[in-house]
C-alpha cells in the first residue's frame, strides 16, 4: 500500500470498544486496513471471521498475534467438538437422506424431496428456532404446513447428533451453535465480506454481545441465491467509507460507477481509480486471443459449459470441472430414467428424486438456480451431451500455469487477480437491468458485473 489515506486514518482512529461498519469498494484495501487496525489496537484481543478457509489462512500470516482468524464454521466446529464425534460431515442433505429420515421417524415428508430439503436448508441458515411458512417454498397452505411439521421433527432428531449416527452438515452444526452457544474470549470481532452473510451468522454475531467491526460492500453481494443477506445494513454502528481503489485505474472505476448508477439503491460514495495503475475497458472482439493472466468470465456454469464443450484448445477452470460435470451427468441420468427406470444412478448425488422434480424446481420466479441450470443444459444438449462432456474432460488441465485460457464463473473468481478479464455475453447490460421491480430482482447481476470489471475479481 502506497500511503495511508484519510479514509483509512478515520477507521484506524475508531477504538474497538463499540461497533462500526466499513463500506469498502472493490480493491480499496479492506483486508489491509483491517490488518493495520489490528496492529493499531494491540491491547484488544480480536476474532477475525473470514469468508472462507483460504482467506482465514492468509489472515493468520498477516494480522497481529492477538487476532485469531477463523471461519464461523471452524469456530463452531471446534466449540461443539465435532471432530471428537468421528462423524461424517457432508455439504448438504440429499433425497436419499430424506428417504432414510422418513423410515427413522416413521412419518412421510409431506411434499416433493427438493421442496422438503429446501425448507430444511432455509431454516438452518435462518435466525431463530421456529420453522415458518416463509422457510417452505410450497405454495399450497396444507402441504406447506405438513412439510414444516416434518422438517421440525427431522431437525429435532438431526440436531441431537451425539445420539445418532446420521450424517450431519456444516449448516446443521452452525445452527446448533447459534441456538446453544455464543462466541466468547475476545474483546471484539472483525467480520469480512459482510455483504454476504447468512442470517444465522448475523444472529451469532449479535448474540456475542461484542463490538463488531463489519467490512463489506453491498454492491459486491453475489450470494443471495444461497440465502446470504446484507449484514452491513443489519448490523449497528456508524458507516465509514473506503473508496480509493489500489487495484485498477480510473477507466475501470468510471465503468464500475456507471454500472452502479443503474442500481435501484445508488451507492453513497463513488469509486476512485489508482492514478498509478494503467487500465482500459474495450469491447471484446472475436479476433482477440487470451494470453497468460487473462480470465474468461461467465455469469453461469451453463454458459461456461457451452463455451468449453466446443473447445479445441487446452484450458483451466477455477475450482475444476469435476463438480460441474458430475452434476450434469446426474441430471442427464434423471432424464434417461424416465424411459429406462432400471438404469442405475450416475454422477453427483442431487436432491431431486426424478426428472419431474428437477423440472418443477426449475420453473417459476422462485426457481432453484441449480435446477434451472441443469434442466437447461440437458434439454438443450441431451443428444450430444456425452460428446461435449468428453471434450471438456479431454482439454481440461489441472494447473493454470499449463495453459493460456483460464475460465471461471463470477462466484468462483471472486478475490482472484488477473491482468485482464474478458466477460462473456450472459451478463445483463445496465439497459436490460434498469427499471422498476426488475431493477430490484437483477441487483445481484449488477453486483456481479461490478465485481467482474476489475482486474482482480
TrEMBL record:
Region named Disordered: 434-457
One Gene Ontology term from the biological process aspect of the record: double-strand break repair via homologous recombination
Native organism: Acetobacter persici
Lineage: Bacteria, Pseudomonadati, Pseudomonadota, Alphaproteobacteria, Acetobacterales
Protein name: Uncharacterized protein
Top-level taxon of origin: Bacteria
GO molecular function: 3'-5' DNA helicase activity; ATP binding; DNA binding
UniProt-listed SUPFAM superfamilies: P-loop containing nucleoside triphosphate hydrolases
